[in-house]
From TrEMBL, chain A:
Gene3D superfamilies listed in its UniProt record: Ubiquitin Conjugating Enzyme
GO molecular function, one term: ATP binding
Top-level lineage group: Eukaryota
Name of the molecule in the record: Ubiquitin-conjugating enzyme E2 2
PANTHER family membership: UBIQUITIN-CONJUGATING ENZYME E2
Active site: residue positions: C118 (glycyl thioester intermediate)
The UBC core domain, residue ranges: 33-180
UniProtKB/TrEMBL annotation, chain B:
CDD domains: Otubain_C65
Region listing for Disordered, in residue ranges: 464-492, 557-589
Species name: Cercophora samala
Protein name: ubiquitinyl hydrolase 1
Alphabetical list of SUPFAM superfamilies matching this protein: Cysteine proteinases
Biased composition (Low complexity): 464-480
Length: 181, 589
């Protein structure tokens, strides 16, 4: 019985620990590849920025964590709003998609109240040929053209067609400018 | 919550002095404690089962929680034991509670040990079977996150292809037949990890391997120049930014450089290719470079290929959701595209051997590009061979001109008795504690005998074969203990062509072979007679003898690498049933 307890208690902690030693070199190597790609993307976004979007690694120098801003496109309920997002890149980026969240509270059919986004290219439609810029551009167009067929916010999906004025009100109610950290 | 009712408890203990099983009174509905009078009033006199149904009455809504419990066989047993006793005694006080198993166990412990009762493990087993909502949520989350455990490296070592034969030894006869002759054509194969990239990875690896084999530095440098020129194609036609594809392409060029530098030492060069492809990031990058090449080539040659695109998103949708997506398997169009853009210009030919269940005695092969099909093999360039099995590609290597170091006589392993015969016509039953032999007979490897023999083998009426078998002491006797391992290889027992009636567990001491020879000779499909071997109708040993049935040699054993869970077939019960409970246990004692 005692050995059972031992394994149960130590397993969660010891597994990563035992993996860390031999795997350290590999994961560093993996990070290098992802980092190289992210440096290229950063360079690209700085040299030829797309209108209305911007992204930059977060202040702590970790290239795997970015902050991004989308300006709400004209002719959408989000016009004039600055929407902030966080990007977290996996170590095997670009083979798996980044985790993208709205950090600004946003009322949108495909975004839930935690900021999680339902967008196919961030999930099963991701390809390594996509990048931060294409993701931001997709999100920008999602603001004006929500996919109301698979909403995360059902009320918003309903109001989008039924009562644009109320929708706009709810957007403005929910919106809150947040401090850059 | 459960509130002990001292009076009720008292009644129960006193009246249950005649050993009312402890399994019973653990269920409590607090709001509507069901006294016996209640039960009578509601007409739920059917014992425990009745309680689950009409007896619960007002608590029916909550009783839904218990539906899994009442439907389990174990609880059915409980009902059988308990029901009549309680209803006749008229003192069965039932406390039902819907809260949790812990309360139930608290109740158990509250019953004084002096009560003379049987222990009740089934009760706790039943309680544990009920998943809490948290369990379900955790289970769902686990299922969502589930990633199959992929075994082995991305690209494996060259392996004798007889491994494939063994892998399919218990499969469909078409597979058996095709894999049995496979090693005659292809001596080796190289397993590729089945992560969804295997086709792309296999071709990419084969491309570099062929370059190494060619030993032509000039060719490799020419290839590098050609692929460099294709970069602009990826950019202009494919529509991918330089900063996106550059990382992928770079790894291809680096490997080409390394291979070119090692061209004088093919072995070292192959080790380099092997190591590179087994580095997940670099291997993926090279593979993804080739994906981009294929998708760009499709976009640039829509006249030729667009008609073959079967995707709702058209060419672009197909590119972004099939060709360019990591871990999405190559399809035939992708194969054609990659051959046309990568292999054809350098004169390489792709030959795919399809190992599937299509009729035929060997794998169907298919050359790409199509022009190669009409030309004599000697006029073709180097060939990259792929073995396709449904949803998976591996590299295979044809037999080299020099003699193969390991001739493998696969047939030796294929001599056995017929499990079908064992089930259908052996009148001796299998012990019922273990594996249902009837169901085992339904496993893919144990399907019926070939048409010619079927009537004989499936005939359950007395036949010449059964003449010797009814006796429990005859050849079908079971040793109650596993036989010593030296008897394990059934091969040695019957390497010679003998009638099927020798079961492989026939230890000489137990069953003399003499009676067998007195019977009319009846050749089975499992004999090693030339006509059967040539017809390929023999089978793999099934390890379904009583000796091996519970061993890991049996595919129904979870330790077996080819583990095949038993399949429940209600019809199988029909002819299995009479075997149960007859003389087998007695025979083995």
């Amino acid at each position: 019985m005692s050995y059972m307890d031992d394994t149960q208690n130590s397993a969660p902690g010891s597994l990563p620990a035992s993996k860390a030693a031999p795997g350290a070199a590999t994961s560093k190597k993996v990070n290098e590849n992802a980092t190289k790609r992210l440096q290229n993307e950063l360079m690209q976004m700085m040299t030829s920025p797309a209108p209305g979007i911007s992204a930059f690694p977060s202040a702590d120098g970790n290239l795997l964590f970015w902050r991004a801003t989308i300006e709400g496109p004209e002719d959408t309920p989000y016009a004039g709003l600055n929407l902030k997002l966080s990007f977290e890149f996996p170590s095997n980026y670009p083979y798996t998609p980044p985790t993208v969240l709205f950090t600004t509270p946003i009322y949108h059919p495909n975004v839930d109240f935690s900021g999680r986004i339902c967008l196919d290219i961030l999930k099963d439609k991701w390809t390594p040929a996509y990048n931060t810029q294409t993701v931001l551009l997709s999100l920008q167009s999602l603001l004006g053209e929500p996919n109301n067929a698979s909403p995360l916010n059902g009320e918003a999906a309903e109001l989008w067609d039924k009562d644009p004025a109320l929708f706009k009100t709810k957007v403005m109610d929910r919106h809150k400018d947040i401090e850059e950290d | 919550m459960y509130e002990p009712d001292p009076a009720a408890q008292f009644i129960h203990q006193v009246s249950a002095g005649y050993s009312l099983p402890q399994t019973l009174p653990q269920y409590t509905f607090d709001e509507t404690p069901l006294r016996l009078t209640d039960r009578r009033g509601r007409g739920g006199g059917g014992g425990y089962g009745g309680l689950g149904g009409p007896g619960v009455g007002g608590a029916a809504g909550r009783s839904l929680l218990y539906s899994p419990i009442f439907s389990t066989p174990a609880s059915a047993n409980t009902a059988g034991v308990v029901g009549p006793a309680s209803s006749t005694a008229g003192h069965g006080h039932f406390n039902f509670h819907t809260t949790s198993a812990t309360t139930a166990s608290a109740l158990t412990s509250s019953v004084p040990a002096t009560t003379h009762h049987r222990s009740s493990p089934p009760h706790f087993a039943i309680q544990k079977m009920e998943p809490t909502p948290e369990d379900l949520v955790a289970q769902e989350a686990a299922a969502r996150e589930y990633q199959p455990q992929l075994e082995g490296p991305f690209v494996g070592e060259k392996t004798p292809s007889t491994a494939i034969t063994n892998e399919y030894a218990k499969a469909d006869p078409i597979y058996i037949q095709k894999t049995a002759v496979l090693p005659q054509t292809y001596s080796h194969y190289r397993p590729i990890q089945g992560d969804g990239n295997c086709g792309w990875r296999a071709i990419a690896f084969g491309y570099f391997e062929t370059l190494v084999k060619g030993g032509n530095k000039g060719q490799i440098e020419a290839e590098k120049r050609r692929l460099e020129d294709l970069n602009s194609y990826i950019e202009t036609i494919g529509g991918h930014s330089q900063y996106v594809y550059a990382d992928f392409v770079e790894e291809t060029f680096l490997l080409l450089d390394r291979v070119a530098a090692l061209i004088g030492d093919p072995e070292q060069a192959m080790r380099e290719v092997y190591a590179t492809f087994n580095n997940s990031e670099i291997g993926n990058a090279i593979m993804y470079h080739f994906r981009l090449l294929a998708s760009s080539y499709l976009k640039g040659n829509q006249d030729t290929y667009a008609a073959f695109v079967e995707h709702e998103g058209g060419v672009h949708g197909y590119c972004s959701s099939v060709l360019e997506r990591h871990q999405v398997e190559i399809d035939h169009l992708g194969l054609s595209l990659l051959v046309d853009v990568l292999l054809k210009p350098v004169g390489f030919v792709l030959k795919v051997a399809y190992l599937d269940r299509s009729p035929g005695s060997e794998v169907n092969s298919y050359h790409l590009p199509e022009e190669a099909r009409d030309r004599h093999p000697s006029t073709l360039g180097p060939i990259i061979h792929l073995l396709y099995r449904p949803d998976h590609y591996d590299l295979i290597y044809p037999v080299e001109p020099e003699p193969i170091p390991e001739p493998v006589n696969v047939q030796v392993h294929r001599v056995s008795f017929s499990p079908t015969f064992d089930i259908a016509s052996a009148p001796v039953a299998m012990p019922s504690y273990g594996i249902n032999m009837g169901v085992l007979g339904m496993l893919p490897g144990f399907h019926g005998p070939p048409p010619g023999l079927a009537p004989t083998l499936l005939d359950t009426s007395p036949s010449p074969l059964s003449a010797y078998s009814p006796s429990p002491t005859s050849t079908w006797i079971t040793s109650p203990f596993p036989e010593p391992p030296q008897q394990a290889p059934p091969v040695s027992v019957q390497a010679a062509p003998v009638p099927m009636s020798i079961p492989i567990h026939t230890a000489p001491a137990v069953a003399p072979a003499a009676p067998l020879q007195t019977h009319p000779l009846r050749f089975s499909e499992y004999c090693q007679l030339p006509e059967y071997v040539e017809n390929d109708t023999w089978r793999e040993p099934s390890f379904q003898t009583s000796t091996f049935r519970n061993s890991h040699f049996n595919v129904a054993h979870y330790n077996n690498p080819n583990f095949q869970p038993e399949e429940y077939r209600p019809d199988a019960e029909d002819y299995d049933a009479p075997q149960r409970g007859s003389g087998k246990k007695r025979a083995s004692v």
